[in-house]
Amino acid sequence: MLPALAVMAATWFALAALATPFDHDESQYIAGAYFSARLLIFRDFLYLQPPLHAWSLAPLACLFPSHMVIAMRLATAGCAAAAILLLWASQRVAGISRISTLIATLAMAGTAAFQFTGSVVRNDMLPTLLVTAGMLALLHALRRERQVWFLFAGACFGLAIASKLNFIPIGAAAGLFLLLGRGSYRIGAALRFAIGGLAGVAPMILAWAFAPEAFLYGVVSFAATGPFQWYAVNGAAHELSMAEKLGDLLKYLWRGPALVALLLLAAQAWIQRRRERSQEKALAFWLIAGGLVGAALPTPSQVQYVMPLLPPLALGMGLLLDDAGRWRRGAKAAVAALLGVSALFGSLPAIRHVRAMVRNGSPMLAASADARWAGARVRALTGDDRVASLSPQYLADSGLAVDRRFAAGPFVYRTGWTLDIARARRLHAMTPALLADMDRDPPAAILAGYEMGIRKLPLRPDDSLIAYAKARGYRMIVMPDGVGRLYVRANYVLGRPPAD
Fold this sequence. Notes:
By secondary structure, the protein is mainly α.
C-alpha cells in the first residue's frame, strides 16, 4: 500500500505543480532562491522570510538556470509527497491501523491548504515536512524511550521555524508536552529537545549575524507592519480585524476535512474528558493546540497558514478512527465518508487546474517559455541583460540579471513611504522614491503589468515603474501572455550609449 501511495502522491503533486498558475506571493520566494544562489541573504539583498527555504532551493537556481521555476515547483511537490509518507509512518508508529492511517492521511492531504502549498513555490510545505519528521521522531521516542530521538525531533522543529515563523507555536507545544508530560524522562527529554531546537534554528541565527538590521526588518518588522499599512492605504483596514481573521480561518479550515476533523476531535475529547489519554493522543492534542495558534497568528489570514495544524490533526484523526471501531456499526464508515467528501471539496481547485492543463497546456511551462522569450528579446535589442521588475518570478528563467533591489517583489516597494531613503539603500530595497537611483546604471529592460491592483486592493504598484520607463524612452513590447509589458531600452541597440 505504501509504495502505491508514494507514487500516487508524487504524480498528483507533480501534475498540480505544472498546472497551477503563478501565485502572487511566489515572487519573493523564487527571487529569494534565485539571489541566494549568487549573493548572501540579507547582507546583499532583502528577504522577508527566515532563510532556510531560500537556501534549500538555491542549488536548483544554479542547476536549472533556464527552468528553475519548474524545478522549484517540482521540489515543493516532492516535499508534499514526502510529508504524506511521513504522516503515514507517524501513525503506524503510533500503533494506528492501516485503514485508519490511510483515511486520516488522505483526509489531511485533501485539504485546500495542503493541495495549494504542495503546488506552488512557498515556504509552507518544507516546514510541514520537517514538523512531520519531528512528530515521527517524538513518537519513536515515546515508544522506545531512546533519548537521541528527542534531540532529532527538536532539530526538525527548529529547522521548521528557520523556514517559517508561524511554526514557532507548534514547536513550543512539543517542548511543553515533554516538559509537563507523565514520563520519568521528561526533564532530560525536554532538555534534549531544546538543544536540538537550537541547532535547528542555527541557520536563522547565522543569517541574523550576517546582517542584523536587514534580518530584523525583513523577518520581524515588515511582517508586523507592512500588511497593515498596505491594507490601510487601500481603504481595506477592516479586512484585518480580529473578527475578519477568525472568519477567514474558519473558511480555510472548512475547505477540506480540517474543520470536520477538529470538531470530531473536540467532541471526542469532551466525551472522554475523564479518561486518561495515551501518550500518543496527548501529543496529538498538544500539537493541535500549537498548530491552531500558529494558524491564527499571521495577518492577514491565508489558506497556507493552516499548515502547522495538519500533521498533528492527521495523527489525532487516525487515533479517533481506530477508536471508532468500538462505536456503533456504521459510525466509522460514516466518518470516513464525511472526510472523503470534504477532501474532494478541498481538492477541487487543484483538480480544476489539472483539467485546464489537459485542455490548454501547462501555465508554468508557458511562463517559463515566455521568460526565455523575454531574455532573448532583451539581449537581441540591447546587448545587455540587466532587468528590473516587481514580478521577478516571470523573469527567473530568462537568463537575465534581475536587479537585486527588487528581490522582495512588490511587498516592500508598495509601502515604500514607510522607509526613509537612507535606510532603504542600506537594506538594498527599492521604493518609488528611489527609482531615480536606477539612472546611474539604467536597466536594459523593465517588466511590468502583473501588479495592477485587485478589487480588494486597487492600488497599482506597477504604475510608478511604468511611468519611470515611459519618461526615459523605453520601448514597450507586449509579453506573449498578453498581460506583461516589457519596456526595453532600445537605444542600447548596436552598442550605442543611452541618450539622456
